[in-house]
Design brief:
The complex is a heterodimer of chains A (about 350) and B (about 180).
Chain A lengths: L1 H39 L15 H11 L10 H18 L6 E6 L2 E5 L7 H22 L3 H32 L4 H10 L3 H4 L1 H14 L11 H4 L9 H25 L11 H7 L1 H26 L7 H26 L7
Antiparallel strand pairs in A: 1-2
Helix pairs in contact in A: 1-2, 1-10, 1-12, 2-10, 3-4, 3-10, 4-5, 5-8, 5-13, 8-13, 10-12, 11-12
Chain B lengths: L11 H5 L1 H14 L24 E3 L14 H5 L5 E7 L13 E9 L8 H5 L5 E3 L14 E2 L1 H8 L26
The chains are: A mainly alpha (about 350), B alpha+beta (about 180).
Chain lengths: ~350, ~180
């Protein structure tokens, strides 16, 4: 009975910590985005609400909540309301399998800092992150209006194409780790080298595909303001629009976390291995969590930096990049990794 | 004849596009540390040129006399018909009972929602009574507030030095003339 209580408590604590970290980050990412874009464009950015505009996200959210929630008469009501929920939930589910720190010891028991330590971790990630496309496609379809429909169609084509590259790019890692558990992947990197250095091609393909999966520039064709008004969320207002917004930022965080876990050594700090983390005890766990969060934040900044550097792709360019460039690179990467990792005596 | 632009064949590194992307990222990174050129508006003000054409206003001379004689030329020339003048007689008696002035505006309205800031009213005014000021902040909660009446127009225009004061000195130095106020 005590064990059960402890497990429930520990898991609840992990869920609360991780989801709140992500939701607060999702609320503050628009502020970061506006600030960084302002710096790049020689402007100041939000600086009126609170110190350096830090209360801006709260003001924005309040504004969104108090706006009229219009449900146009021509929409398919069920899908229209379901779509924004589907845009947020898959990203939050994926968080469940992401290890965010070394294990801590509480009341004499060891707790791994991952909500659900699944043996098929990475498959779970791809299964759920693929569901996010339904949110966008449903939104486009249910809006019953031309620009959202175009956005939804683009989104489904784009997500399906890049999902494959995403999957292929990480196969090399799991060949090296000989496990699909994300915890194993991190432990292997903490003791050895980061996968960024052993799998540079995989990293490149994964990052490009991650940009496409999160609909971020240069691959933001589903919303492409200049062509499609606002794409799939044209007909949405008030809190439903906010959910799409939050969903996009939550997805960005999830992919940043995945990049950190798969390629940047998770919670690893240079010159430390699993033993030295264990030696520091719970302080080591805190250090690891900080390191993991720092990597995520850096990658989130990279998203913003790229957004204000590169122009949007044309749709045919997007497709040809996905199928004719990234897919072959992903396949070659698997082949080369396989050849280099042949068991002794097989060659 | 069609102009054919020779396009150089890209070499391997250029075809990868990655070096170009890195260059772009470096450019935007450098840009992040340049000072912002933003003017923090309500606290900092832009420099307004002397000949800026802001809201038109009516002026009084140094004696406090309203210079408009209600000739309605500005009303006539105004392209968007923003000006409406209700002419009246110049008040008899008082400090400004100059002999040759017959009219003064009873009401003077400029609809700032119609005004196009062309400055024709200032140009055509034979009395130098209306000027384009440097006032550029016109806000109101209602449309009616932006139809400036006489009081508001004088508030905007204020007082201008008039070195000539032609009506005051019209009869000065002429034989038989009694100066201001003499009929």
């Amino acid at each position: 009975m005590n064990d059960l209580l402890f497990d429930v408590g520990a898991n609840l604590a992990k869920i609360i910590i991780l989801t709140h970290t992500v939701l607060v980050l999702a609320a503050y990412m628009p502020w970061v985005e506006r600030k960084v874009s302002a710096w790049i464009q020689d402007r100041v950015g939000p600086n009126r609400v609170g110190w350096a505009g830090l209360l801006q996200p709260i003001a924005d959210t309040l504004k969104f909540i108090f706006k009229e929630d219009v449900v146009p008469g021509h929409v398919n009501k069920v899908l229209y309301i379901l779509a924004p929920c589907l845009a947020v939930i898959p990203s939050l589910f994926v968080l469940a399998v992401i290890p965010f720190g070394p294990s801590v010891s509480v009341l004499g028991r060891t707790v791994d800092l991952v909500i659900a330590d699944l043996g098929v971790g990475i498959l779970f990630v791809f299964a759920f992150s693929s569901l996010a496309v339904y949110g966008i496609t449903f939104a486009g379809w249910a809006s019953n209006s031309k620009y959202p429909l175009l956005g939804g169609v683009r989104s489904s084509a784009q997500m399906i194409s890049y999902e494959i590259c995403l999957g292929l790019s990480v196969v090399g890692i799991f060949m090296g780790a000989e496990s699909l558990r994300l915890l194993d992947v991190v432990h292997q990197q903490v003791d050895g080298t980061w996968n960024l250095f052993t799998q540079p091609l995989g990293f490149l393909v994964f990052v490009i595909a991650a940009f496409a999966e999160t609909n971020r520039l240069p691959f933001d064709l589903p919303e492409a303001e200049t062509e499609l008004v606002a794409g799939y969320h044209t007909e949405y207002s008030s809190i439903k629009f906010t959910l799409f917004f939050a969903g996009e930022y939550a997805a960005m965080f999830v992919f940043a976390a995945l990049v950190a876990v798969l390629f940047l050594g998770g919670w690893d700090v240079p010159f430390m291995d699993n033993a030295s983390f264990a030696a520091l005890g719970n302080w080591g766990a805190l250090l690891g969590f900080g390191s993991f969060l720092a990597k995520c934040l850096l990658f989130l900044l990279f998203y913003v930096w790229v957004r204000f550097t590169l122009p949007r792709f044309r749709f045919d360019q997007l497709m040809s990049l996905g199928w004719k460039v990234l897919l072959p690179i992903g396949l070659v990467n698997i082949l080369v990794t396989g050849l280099l990792n042949l068991p002794d005596g097989a060659a | 004849m069609a102009l054919v632009v020779e396009r150089r064949k890209l070499n391997f590194w250029e075809e990868l596009y990655l070096p170009a992307i890195a260059q772009g990222l470096a450019q935007t990174f450098r840009q992040m540390f340049k000072p912002a050129i933003t003017l923090q508006y309500p606290e900092q003000r832009p420099v307004i040129a002397d000949d800026y054409r802001g809201a038109p206003g009516l002026v009084k001379d140094q004696d406090g006399r309203e210079k408009c004689v209600s000739c309605q030329l500005c009303e006539y020339i105004c392209p968007p018909k923003a000006i409406v003048i209700v002419p009246g007689e110049a008040p008899a008696g008082g400090p400004f009972d100059y002999s040759n002035i017959e009219k003064a505006p009873r009401e003077f309205y400029i609809d700032m929602l119609r005004c196009i800031y062309c400055g024709y009213c200032e140009e055509i005014c034979p009395e130098q009574a209306i000027f384009m000021t440097r006032e550029y902040e016109l806000n109101a909660a209602t449309r009616q507030e932006l139809v400036h009446d006489k009081a508001r127009l004088y508030q905007i225009g204020g007082t201008r030095q008039d070195p000539i004061q032609k009506w005051k000195h019209k009869d000065d130095g002429r034989p038989g003339a009694g100066g201001a106020g003499a009929h």
